[in-house]
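## Example record

The block below lists the input lines for one assembly entry, exactly as stored, with component labels intact.
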Amino acid sequence: METRELRYFVAVAEELHFGRAAQRLGIAQPPLSRTISQLERRLGAVLLERTSRTVSLTEAGAVLLREARAALDAVEAAERRTRRAALAASGRAGAVLASKAGASSELLAKLLDSYAAEPDAVTIEVLLCGIGEQERLLRDGRADVALLHLPFDATAGLDTEELCTERQVAILPAGHPLTGRPHVHMAEVTGLPDLPMPRWPGRDGKYPDGPGPQARDHAQLLQLIALGRACWIAPESCRAQLRDDLVAVPVLDAPTVTTVIAWPPHSRSRAVAGLVRTATRL
Amino acid sequence: METRELRYFVAVAEELHFGRAAQRLGIAQPPLSRTISQLERRLGAVLLERTSRTVSLTEAGAVLLREARAALDAVEAAERRTRRAALAASGRAGAVLASKAGASSELLAKLLDSYAAEPDAVTIEVLLCGIGEQERLLRDGRADVALLHLPFDATAGLDTEELCTERQVAILPAGHPLTGRPHVHMAEVTGLPDLPMPRWPGRDGKYPDGPGPQARDHAQLLQLIALGRACWIAPESCRAQLRDDLVAVPVLDAPTVTTVIAWPPHSRSRAVAGLVRTATRL
DNA sequence: GCCCAGCGATACCGCAGGGGTATCGATCCC
DNA sequence: GGGATCGATACCCCTGCGGTATCGCTGGGC
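Predicted structure tokens for the full assembly:
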């Protein structure tokens, strides 16, 4: 199977429409139809059920969609990592570290400082990204290593080392009645009708249903809390970055957050190994 | 990048010889040279250092070799799993489970029995394989799920669930002085000059250096022990399969062995999910 | 020191196959 | 029933992959 065939199939499987898929791929519809038929013949499996009005995935097609995405990610990763290795050899950027924007910035700063002091340190490019994006970045080679936060991020298929564990705090607008308390419980925070939890967009860019306001990033989130429209629960290390108009109160029964450093299991380059070693020594 | 290019590159990178690589690929040498040059030009990276006598990998080439193998495994897995899904849909085999030959056969039997009793059970094909082979089988799609034994097998890049933990026993020939003891310590077993540990072939098929006799599989191993030429340390569940001329003695300070069920993280099919669920309930 | 063997690169050719246009056949909607 | 929509088919062109012949370089043998 060639990656071209996989790319074509993924396009059709996602669009469920040969015409649109062909447009997306920048080719005409007939060669696309032909390629898919060839793929089906070679695999000995019907991948798509076509009536002349609708296209739908068969069981085997669903499997191939899942597997093809993974395989294409791996191919893309190979390409990106090779390019990066060539740059590294010629003295340019060494590795890319992905971290959630706004999270654990002090840990990140300490890590980068300590690593830079290592004798064989290379340049580390930092890629700040959205929630849950790190796994994809690692899989398709845009990043070599990432900081994840359990239990929020999935670590399936990644190698990890634990770095630190911390409790969580509730972020509330200054002046809210609860801010006078030395600590609170989950139920007291999640049950506030006037301060619901904001909703985050999922991977598809859509917001889940619910009562809370919509927030796209950290700045919006903090703004919403300051405006008295929402509250939030976050690792206590975020206290260092809090604005004056926000107050953090420890939540006694919130799950603790563990920050881990993660990398794709088979690709432990010198730069990644050095970063991991430095991180575990912090 | 097309898989054809990756296959070609891997062949050259492994042979470090264009002629032999071309032969292995079943093509002539010139198109191979051309394809590699094109690949290098497109990546903007020198992958191979050629003098007219020798070929060697550059840094970037080593990275691509590693990544290309992973990517090709993923593509192969996509192909195999799709074929299998098509067969499953037409009522044939449902999933392939890999397990070390001769290991934890009672657990395996219980698992297969319990799973078969599930309402939505499909046919499970069992693939008995050699030491350390399971990871590769899972990665390239020849197997969907495997039984692994920690700390011997690597679980990097796999999702796992623990099934059971057991102590280890020393396997000795009947009549050996230590067989009268209720238990022994590691040092007493590993230090026996007359009963060294057998050597196993690695992934490359070669035997490591050392004093012990060479063994290729379980039967040979047991035969060697019965002959008084070797001893072995194994999980205690293997007692059930022991021949009369062998004796198992608990080893107090041997590391415990944990059997886990493992599967590739992104591909949790219905059959795999069912097997895992059944296994954790045992 | 010269020549030959071995190896990768280059030049050139033929054709399989990937991509394009035109069109057909089927289905849904008004 | 006619038009619109969509995937499949027929046919053509040309890219690009693979083949053969050959070159250029290098190391080793005499």
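Chain A has three domains: 3-76, 93-149+259-281, 168-250. Chain A touches chain B through 44 residues (CB under 8 Å).
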